[in-house]
Amino acid sequence: MPKTALIAVDVQNDYLPKGTLGFPESDCIIESLVEYATLAADIIICSRNLRPPDHASFNLERAPGDPIYKPTENGGDWAMNCVKGTPGARIVADLASIVAKPSNCVVTKSLERTQGGFSAFEGGTLRPLESLEDILYREQVTHVTVGGYWLDWAVAQTAFDASALGYQTAIDRQCTVPFIETPERTERIVKHLEHAGILLV
Known about the structure:
By secondary structure, the protein is of the alpha/beta class. The chain has a single domain, classed as Rossmann fold (3-Layer(aba) Sandwich), CATH 3.40.50.850. The protein is built from 5 helices and 8 strands. Residues 62-77 have low confidence and may be disordered.
């Protein structure tokens, strides 16, 4: 019997409009994520970044035009975000209350200074230690739907990994938003996803 997992990627406070990497209306996906988690998914898995303050991604030299560059309100680019122990690292409250149920779980990534932390498959539960791949196998999941932050980064990479592992994989466009949104960039990413057999709905 088909069993669907919703992987809500990095739905953390720092990506909301008032967060260090948020922008106006970046919270537009929260209602759809909660609705999908409540009505359509058999199991909900939230990934989160818990980065140390000296995480390597905070110190890279970048310039406008680089794929990861995005100016922030304070004039920086890839601002410190989801630092362990800060309010910005917390999972958004509406989803946190859902994933707290015993049948659901949280996988954590970016704990080490040099860990990239894009795909949710890079993370695992902390106590006991269990990988996302192990969780899906244990729960006999057949279908994976991916949402969260950001379509052009962690969401896409998570979907690629799920598809490569043999899961019927979809991305719900109402449940995700790109970090850098241009028609050309988004079209290119969508084509890569569709070429990998990932359904965009």
